[in-house]
Amino acid sequence: MRCFFNGGYNLMTLCVFFACLFINHGSAGKMKIVEEPNTFGVNNPFLVQGSRLQAKVSPSSVSGPAHLYRLAGKCFIRTESTYKYEFCPFHNITQHEQSFRWNAYSGILGIWQEWEITNNTFTGMWMRDGDTCGTRNRETKVIFVCSNSSKLAQVSEPSTCVYSLTFETPLVCHPHSLLVYPTLTENLQREWDEAEQARYEGLITEQGYDNLLRDIFEDAGFLKSHKVNLKPSSETADSETHNSLQKCTEDFQKQRKEIERLQALLSQHHIPFDSKPNETKGTASETDKDEHLRGDTGLIDVQ
Prior knowledge:
By secondary structure, this protein is of the alpha+beta class. It has helices spanning 2-29, 186-200, 206-220, 234-268, 277-280, 286-293; strands at 76-80, 83-88, 92-97, 106-118, 121-128, 132-133, 136-137, 139-146, 151-159, 162-169. The longest helix is centred in the C-terminal third of the chain and has 35 residues, at 234-268. It is elongated and about 100 Å long.
C-alpha cells in the first residue's frame, strides 16, 4: 500500500511538471513581437554609441521667444504609414522606418540651426545638416501652428530631401507670440530703430537695411552667423605689417621720382616753382609739430 501511494505521488508530480512546460510553451508561442527598428536615432541615450545615428554637427543654442524654451528637452512622435517621426525642438528630427527589412531606414532629417524670420515674425524653425541625400544634406522646416495641445501634426516632403513639419502648440496662440522685436535686448532694439530711421530718411538702401537686420538677428543668435573671422594670427599680422611698410616705402620713392620729373618739366619750359616751400613759410610752431607727431597725416600749413 505504501509503494502504491509513493508511485501515485511521483506520477502526479510528473503530470504537474509536464503541464507547466506545456503552459509555458503555449505562452511563449503567443509572445508579442516588438515592431521597432534597432536604432532610435540620437535621442535614445541607452544605446551604445556605435549603434546610434551620428549627427554631423552640434545643434545651435536655444533662442527665439522665451516662452518656447520650455519645449527644449522634450520630444514629440508621430507615425505616418510605415514611418515614425520624432521631433525634439532645439535639437533634431529623426525618421525611422517601421519595417522588418534588414536595411530599414533610420536617419536624421535635420539638426537645429536657425530661425526663419519674415516681417518681424518667426515663421519657421530650420533643422539642417541631416543625413546625406544624393549631393546634399536632408533638412526640415518646422512651422508652428496654434492648437489646444502640443503635438506633431503633419510631415511632408515638398521637394527631394527637404521636409516640412507642422507642430501644433498653445504656446503660439497669442497674436504677438512669434514677434521678433520684443525678444531682442535693448541695445539690439536700439540698433533696429536706428536702421529704420536711416531707411526712412533714405540714408541706406533696402539691401543695406536687410543686411543691418541680418547682423542684428545674428548677434541675437536667431540666425546662424556667416561672418568670417578676420582676426589674423600674430605671424600673419607681422607679415602684413612688413608688407605695409615695404609698400609705403615703394610708394614714397615713386612719388619722389614723379615730383622730380614734374620739376624737370617745369624747368624745361622756364616755369618758376618753389622747390623748398617749408623754408619760405617759416618754422612751424611747437604746437603744430606736436599735432603732426600725434598722427595728422596732412601737411602743416602755417600762415
